[in-house]
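dumping this here so i dont lose it
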């Protein structure tokens, strides 16, 4: 008697389920959004597959979702409901918009580990002063500025002379205080590589310069 043998086949893997169902809506007014099921706006998602239910409620708008590996849109002319399944990739930014009104009806969100933008450059400080007998530009340590690094600067200007002024010129810079009266000012300037000169417009010997590298 020959024993029958039965082959045991592995069970079929269950299809992957979307991480979440998102809800998109555009119109009937000039509104567009992408939200979680609880109604909060989508600003950041984990990478993976998502279901999106889209309600396009206007004949002058559409909902257009785009980004790495994704380009889905409804028509402008029709009112419609759409069901999309999309895969959002790690480290990407995705955008949605109404194409006819893209400058005002739009939004975006990030997915996964998105590199952070570099911090803004530090703002350096200088102080400038002019009196009836002296004029100077100094670093935070109090030393006379001779060579400074290129970049953004906040310059505190102190003009204590009623008949003089402080006038700074250089690459893309031409700023000055008034000759008559005294004043204090704060100038936010970007200093570029080159030579900068400062002077009183009323007394030639009140002058100086520094170099930006």
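and the seq i came up w/
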């Amino acid at each position: 008697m020959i024993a029958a043998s039965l082959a045991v086949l592995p069970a079929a893997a269950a299809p992957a389920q979307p991480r979440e169902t998102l809800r998109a809506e555009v119109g009937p007014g000039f509104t567009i959004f992408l939200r979680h099921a609880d109604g909060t706006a989508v600003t950041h998602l984990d990478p993976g597959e998502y279901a999106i239910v889209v309600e396009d409620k206007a004949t002058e708008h559409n909902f257009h979702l785009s980004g790495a590996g994704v380009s889905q849109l409804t028509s402008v002319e029709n009112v419609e409901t759409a069901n999309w399944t999309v895969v959002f990739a790690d480290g990407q930014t995705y955008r949605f918009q109404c194409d006819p009104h893209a400058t005002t009806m739009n939004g975006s969100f990030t997915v996964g580990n998105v590199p952070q933008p570099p911090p803004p450059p530090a703002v350096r400080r200088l102080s400038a002063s002019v009196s009836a007998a002296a004029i100077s530009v100094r670093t935070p340590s109090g030393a006379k500025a001779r060579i400074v690094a290129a970049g953004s600067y906040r310059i505190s200007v102190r003009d204590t002379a009623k008949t003089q002024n402080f006038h700074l010129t250089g690459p893309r810079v031409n700023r000055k205080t008034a000759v008559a009266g005294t004043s204090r000012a704060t100038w936010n300037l970007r200093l570029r590589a080159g030579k900068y000169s400062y002077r009183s417009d009323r007394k030639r010997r009140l002058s100086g310069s520094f170099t930006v590298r």
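Residues 89 and 179 are 61 Å apart (CA to CA).
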